[in-house]
Design goal:
Length: 210
Amino acid sequence: MTGYPDEPSDDASGDSHERGPINEDRRRLVSWLWRLPVLAALGGAGYGLVEVYRVHFAKLVPTDQPTFAPRPEHDVAPLARFEAPWDAVTFDLAGLPAVAVRLPEPIAGGTSDAATHLAAFSRVCTHQACIVDLTTDPEAIAFAFNHRTDRPQLTCACHYSVFDPLRAGRAVSGPAIRPLPRVRLRVVREGAEPHVVADGVEVEAHGVRG
């Protein structure tokens, strides 16, 4: 007998494909691929932590001495329209949607006429420029905006930001960081009855860290 048929031949006929050297670049690439989901998860977690801090702990406090840029005078409403606290009138000041509100106490940037304390704010949300509204029912604010309060608030239904008029328009809940710009009001006593007019918008309404 000259050989065994079951034994592999010494030539290359049993393996038509010769194995080349291992591609080190490919090996390194494969070794990194499994790390990508981990890195993505860590990056997402880090971004989430930054956003949590920014939204809950980095909101800006309105300044106590606002500066107003003049606008053409606009007649908002008769003073008698603000008969009770939280009575409000919406208006446009040179194209800016705004709201004037009677408050139970004075705030920086507002105006007072005897015991009538008024303030006005831009209605353009400082988060993504949706329009805010005055919501007077605290229970509705708690249910719809997840913010517990005992008084009316300016609320944005787009992304659920809440602004407190008694804190000079400060963002108190939701993704908004900057306060609502205040609108300058004054009471004019010309004619038969006093009127509330608006004639300026707060500039640099970025507030300070609080």
